[in-house]
Design a protein that fits this description.
By secondary structure, this protein is of the alpha/beta class. It has helices at about 20-35, 40-50, 50-60, 65-75, 85-95, 105-115, 135-140, 150-160, 180-185, 190-205, 255-270, 275-285, and strands at about 5, 115-120, 175-180, 210-215, 230, 240-245, 250. A hairpin with a 2-residue loop joins strand 6 and strand 7.
Amino acid sequence: MAYAEVERRPERPAEVDGTAHLFRALGRQIKVLREAAGLQQKQLAGMVHVGEDLISAIERAVRTPQPDLLERADEVLNAGGVLRAAIPDVREALKKARTRHPEWYRGYAELEAQAVELHFYANQGVPGLLQIAEYAHTIFSHWRPLLDEATIDKRVADRLARQQVFERRPMPPISYVLEEVVLDRPIGGSEVHAAQLRRILEVGRMRNVEIQVMPTASEEHPNMDGAFNLLVPNGQDHQIAYTEAQGYPRLITDPSEVRLIADRYGIMRAKALTPRESLNLIERRLGAR
């Protein structure tokens, strides 16, 4: 597959595919069944072995309920097969659904969804794959020029839908280098900030994920440019890179240019805190709140 380099202004988001109605209806059904059972979102999350944020996002139709979750939820909520009956439609919708991202982002989003290896460097905010719904909503609510509510909701849903990469089997190796300031910036207020840190901890404890923090006090830094993503596309043995600055996205496939970015990333990983030290730092941030 050939990858054309992209460097142009974003276009308007693509039209939402028809599967949104199915997932919205399922979210409402799950909420009604949960409330009828007298359960809080946290309680249901524990019973079906997922995070509370995921249950909340599914009920608000900003995350897709996976077939295995519907199977477990049908049992614990005594749904009598109502949720289980939707599984074939969900599988078909997941298979046929069109990419929901803006036109300018589709090329990268398609590669990311199937990548066999992913690496991220963030210097301003929490990367999209780590964001909780409330954090993402705050980001898009303060976007300039201002977005209407429908567009905000759609962009939040699109961003959270990308997080299905964590549910893939086999699990792709994923790594992050986060500037320490990313952990300190309280986007959305104190409660959202705390929930976001907990989500980073949750993902950082996955077996296939390593999160490292670059201390602000570090006196040496190999990358004073912007954030970037590196990935190995499915079926390929080489990396590509993606950057975005002031609304200008760029998908980089030239091997020499990608190698420079990968070299910087490797040096940053060597200079950053170890994954264990980084998780300990985040735990201390939460404990000090």
